[in-house]
Amino acid sequence: MKPVIVVHGGAGRIFKDREDGCRSGVTRAALKGYGILKHGGSALDAVEEAVVVMEEDPHFNAGRGSVLNEKGEVEMDAIIMDGKNLASGAVSAVKCIANPIKLARLVMEKTDHMLLTDQGASAFARGMGVPEVPGEKLITERSLERWKKNLEADSNPQQFQKDLGTVGAVAIDSAGNVACATSTGGLTNKRVGRVGDTACIGSGGYADNNVGAASTTGHGESIMKVVLARLILYHMEKGKSPGDAADSALDCMKTRVGGLGGVIVISNSGDWAARCSTQEMSWATVKDDQLHYGIHAGEWHTQPAEEAIGSRRC
């Protein structure tokens, strides 16, 4: 099996001044994950490390750069899933953790559970030796400005929810195993303790070697209502291609509950798709040593992966 990785940096409204940063972020993440796959690494390792790249990039609503809750704090959700055995781990409402996706994987591999939240997740992180970082280290000026703006009496927080920035990755490795990973800071000015779709298996992501893998982004409550990631795989089980399955699922979410979002999908044969019902979604993929990426509908850039890696080193 030829390895393939696809990543997204969130569906929604990507403002002009942030487009270059988002393109750069998703391409770096895809190249990082593909490098692992090319050297015989697992799909699970590839999606985890790709998401770490984006968690550490302030252009995205995950890790450093996460939006703030109603109290001005960062609360993050993440999930990872192994298509080989359907093992999954997730965390929700975690604070002071630089890379929630790494903690999610520890939940998968070191506990008998699938999801830990808030104080329980924090206690588990300490027990695993995961270092804490000061909460302010995860807060960007942009997130702080948006939070303050939403506190004003005449503000409308919903206008900012279109710029969501959740990150995710799906991959297939040379052994034919698939995996997914998704990480987010959630909705800006959300209630303390709010858990969105990202941490929920079947909504924020799903991976099954028998079918493929998907990672979602968009309005979390809408995604949960239709269990978007698993819905996509259901359509693939019925014979649809990754692209057609993604389109059908997104259309269902928009028609049934009025929700918008985006998805990346990969099949167990290595076919892939990146689709969204929003204005934009940053995405990138590497297949057959070719990097492809874009943001706007119809935008498609292609570059040899080795050339892309070299240019980013410079």
Automatic annotation (TrEMBL):
Q: Kindly provide the name given to this protein in its UniProt entry.
A: Isoaspartyl peptidase/L-asparaginase
One term under GO cellular component: cytoplasm
Reactions catalysed, semicolon-separated, are: Cleavage of a beta-linked Asp residue from the N-terminus of a polypeptide; L-asparagine + H2O = L-aspartate + NH4(+)
Instruction: Write out the residues that bind substrate.
Output: 194-197, 217-220
Which chain positions carry the site (Cleavage)? Answer: 165-166
Q: Which organism is it from?
A: Podarcis lilfordi (Lilford's wall lizard)
| Biological processes annotated in GO | L-asparagine catabolic process via L-aspartate; proteolysis
Q: Which family does it belong to?
A: Belongs to the Ntn-hydrolase family.
Q: Give the keywords, sorted.
A: Autocatalytic cleavage, Hydrolase, Protease
Name the active site residues. 166 (nucleophile)
